[in-house]
Write a structure and sequence with these properties.
8 helices; about 45% helix; 6-stranded parallel β-sheet; 6 strands; Undecaprenyl pyrophosphate synthetase; alpha/beta; globular
Length: about 220
């Protein structure tokens, strides 16, 4: 099945609650969620998605305990090293967007290396890391001298090269954007599922695309 969705955003929610329900440490929920992220890149490839953006770590996540933040940075390193080959074989471009300067220097280097190694590919996976929609807009506005317009503001965004989102999927049961790609998601269709991210499957993804196609047909009066 191919979908008419070309640019997709995913809010990967429910990792900690998933672990708690399983009687596991919270970090194990995040670890399982990382495995699903890597699988989801492959699924999106199969469905013909050109751009997919994952909400990996928000600006608000820095407020979590040092122990949890350190563990999440450890998982990022695991993704950039141990999971690297699994990602590279998908033939997608990897781009990280957000305030990357807050990430440890060692990981910044690994991020640059992965972006460089994958830049020849046309399909793009956007990893929103140390990212917040409000911070992105404020940062862009502060770079502009003179009159701010929609055009010059958008060109100054961290996500300037990202197409507008056709659809946003949020797992975990909450019905909100939580500061995710506020500019790019302005006209996106919003799909919410109670399924927690570590339990998300290819079938769940397919179901969301089926919902999208039906919703678009209804909105177009078909």
């Amino acid at each position: 099945m191919k979908t008419s969705v070309q640019t997709l955003g995913i809010i990967m929610d429910g990792n900690r609650r998933y672990a708690t329900q399983k009687g596991l440490p919270r970090i194990e929920g995040h670890r399982s969620g990382l495995d699903i992220l890597v699988k989801c890149i492959e699924w999106c490839n199969e469905f013909g998605i050109k751009d997919v953006a994952f909400y990996a770590f928000s600006t608000e996540n820095w407020k979590r305990s040092k122990q949890e933040v350190d563990a999440l940075m450890g998982l990022l390193e695991y993704m950039l090293t141990e999971k690297k080959e699994d990602i590279l074989k998908q033939d997608v471009r990897i781009r990280f967007v957000g305030d990357i300067t807050k990430i440890p220097k060692k990981l910044q280097k690994l991020i640059v290396e992965m972006e460089s190694q994958t830049k020849k590919h046309t399909k793009t996976v956007w990893i929103c890391l140390s990212y917040g929609g409000r911070a992105e807009i404020v940062t862009a506005a502060n770079t502009i001298t003179g009159t701010i317009t929609e055009t010059n503001l958008e060109k100054s965004l961290w996500t300037a090269d990202m197409p507008d989102l056709d659809m946003v999927i949020r797992t975990g049961g909450n019905h909100r954007l939580s500061n995710f790609l506020l500019w790019k998601a302005s006209y996106a269709e919003l799909y919410f599922t109670k399924t927690k991210w570590p339990a998300f499957t290819k079938q769940h993804l397919k179901r969301s695309f089926e919902w999208y196609e039906k919703n678009i047909q209804i909105n177009n009066g078909k």
